[in-house]
User: Fold this.
Amino acid sequence: MLSFEGSTPLAEWAAGAADINLLTGQVTTSQLDDDVRKDLDSVIFYGGRNGWTGADEKTQVRRFLSDHLSGGRLTPDQAAAYALSSQSVSERGAKRLRELLARS
Assistant:
């Protein structure tokens, strides 16, 4: 499994990119439920381009994703990796998303 800065597993990035597992030859699939991915897509659409720097974008992240986090259906690392699969999110933005969720 890939990681950036040695700490974030990129399984969700690989799933978003339809990456092929070189060991199995299978396409990587997401470990997240459809509703979690839908909420992540909303958060990425609303604040991903600017890296969730504004107060409204941060509020949107918490409103859409806090229940998934507290319910154990999403981790900050999964969210960051999923965000990286979007062309509108930079590595810096994905790191900021992970940090926002880690503090939630």
